[in-house]
């Protein structure tokens, strides 16, 4: 199954739906740091990332994520440009886009200020935990668009392995259960024909578990950012 939601966004929604955008300067963060904080701040439990590209240079633009917020039918585009970061929200209901300036922008600015004050070790751990968040989103999305089992397996595996080297993750209450759950789904995906689409009969169970894990991960990141 092709990524029809992304195709619809690019062909119709960008030009026809009401939108609102905000700009945030990087300084004193680098482009990667602010992009990751913006991804997390724009994300919700019920969101899914339908497109992601990452810059290979932490100090240059080029990263872009498109989040689809299923409950409210809205799209959020996060782009790291060379001079600043831009977030654009699209919704069929123009008033829904007010969430960008009322909630997301002040929250991002607050988290940016908190992040600045932390030491390098904490920053590295936090960014790696947001990587786990992104990998959970990737695994969920791939299963929903019937990507081949091998891709779903590697997305889950990346989430599990990334988490395993982050102390604030592994020392948190519930981390062992999260790792066991991820390992279970890795094992299941590994047993599937690697080039066959991930079976839709098992998507519901995977998504339910991934959303539970994502809720836990989002809470972990927020609690550390609020310290």
Could you walk me through the main structural features you see in this protein, from its secondary elements to its overall organization?
The protein has helices at 4-16, 31-42, 98-117, 120-144, 149-164, 167-170, 175-190, 203-225, and strands at 19-24, 47-53, 64-69, 74-80, 85-91. It is of the alpha+beta class.
Q: What is the first-to-last residue Cα distance?
A: 43 Å
Number of strands: 5
**What quaternary form is this?**
single chain
Mean pLDDT: 94
Q: From the helix content, strand content and strand pairing, which structural class follows?
A: alpha+beta
Calculate Rg over CA atoms.
17 Å
Biggest sheet statistics: 5 strands, antiparallel
Layout of strands and helices, then pairs:
Layout: H1 4-16, E1 19-24, H2 31-42, E2 47-53, E3 64-69, E4 74-80, E5 85-91, H3 98-117, H4 120-144, H5 149-164, H6 167-170, H7 175-190, H8 203-225
Antiparallel strand pairs: 1-5, 2-3, 3-4, 4-5
How would you sum up this structure in a few lines?
The chain is α+β, with helices and mostly antiparallel strands.
């Amino acid at each position: 199954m092709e990524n029809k939601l992304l195709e619809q966004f690019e062909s119709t929604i960008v030009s026809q739906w009401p939108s609102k955008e905000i700009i945030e300067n990087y300084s004193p963060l680098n482009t990667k740091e602010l992009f990751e904080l913006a991804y997390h701040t724009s994300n919700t439990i019920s969101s899914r990332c339908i497109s992601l590209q990452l810059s290979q240079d932490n100090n240059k633009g080029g990263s872009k994520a498109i989040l689809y917020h299923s409950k409210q039918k809205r799209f959020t585009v996060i782009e790291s440009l060379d001079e600043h970061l831009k977030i654009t929200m699209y919704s069929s209901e123009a008033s829904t886009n007010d969430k960008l300036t009322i909630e997301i922008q002040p929250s991002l600015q607050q988290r940016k200020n908190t992040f600045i004050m932390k030491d390098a070790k904490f920053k590295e751990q936090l960014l790696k935990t947001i990587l786990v968040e992104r990998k959970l989103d990737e695994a969920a999305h791939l299963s929903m668009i019937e990507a081949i089992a091998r891709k779903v397996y590697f997305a889950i595996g990346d989430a599990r392995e990334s988490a395993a080297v982050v102390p604030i993750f592994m020392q948190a209450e519930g981390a062992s259960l999260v790792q066991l759950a991820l390992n279970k789904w890795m094992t299941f995906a590994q047993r599937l024909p690697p080039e066959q689409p991930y079976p839709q009969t098992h998507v519901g169970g995977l998504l339910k578990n991934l959303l539970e894990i994502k809720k836990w991960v989002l809470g972990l990141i927020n609690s550390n950012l609020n310290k």
